[in-house]
Amino acid sequence: MSKLARMAAVTAVAAVLTGGAFMPSASANGSHSYTCSNQGGGPNHTVNCIGTVTVNNVLNNTTVVVKDINVLNGTQLNTLQNALVNVSNNDVNAPVSVQIGDLQTAVITTYLQKFSITLLPVNVSVCDGSICV
Q1: Which residues pair with residue 128 across a beta bridge?
Q2: What is the pLDDT of residues 24-40, one digit of tens each?
Q3: 37 backbone dihedrals φ, ψ, rounded to 5°
Q4: If we measure between CA atoms, which residue out of 107, 47, 43, 109 comes closest to residue 74?
């Protein structure tokens, strides 16, 4: 096992043991980082995330917009970012429609399982260029 692979394994174990609360939201090589932030307030509040998916070995910009009136705290934003990174790392070079569909599913699942908030798919928009779900 290479030194980089060992370091990634140790980092992954540490993230699991600490709940990932302080781990940066990026892949081992940093290529699939996501940044999420709260935007607005009240009924017009959204959580916006910007990151990348891989298409034909090229990183494409991807946006995720969650229509939700709940303002997420820092730990929740980090949890969402990590979920998006995991999908992007696992779906490298899958068709774009598959990647963005999986990102949408990851957001819905993360909200439900980690935050106890039910989201409908219509409230989660994921776009890569002109392809959106």
Answers
A1: 131
A2: 333 334 478 999 999 99
A3: -150, 155
A4: 47
Bridge partners of 59? 54
Angle 63-65-68 from CA coordinates, rounded to 5°:
165
- CB 47 within 8 Å of CB 73: no
- Are the beta carbons of 129 and 97 closer than 8 angstroms? no
Write down the pTM of the prediction. Answer: 0.76
For the chain, how many residues are written? 133
DSSP 133: -
Exposure string of 20-46, with b = 16+ CB inside 10 Å and e = fewer, is beebebbbeeeebbbebebeeeeeebb
Q: How far is CA 126 from the centre of its chain?
A: 11
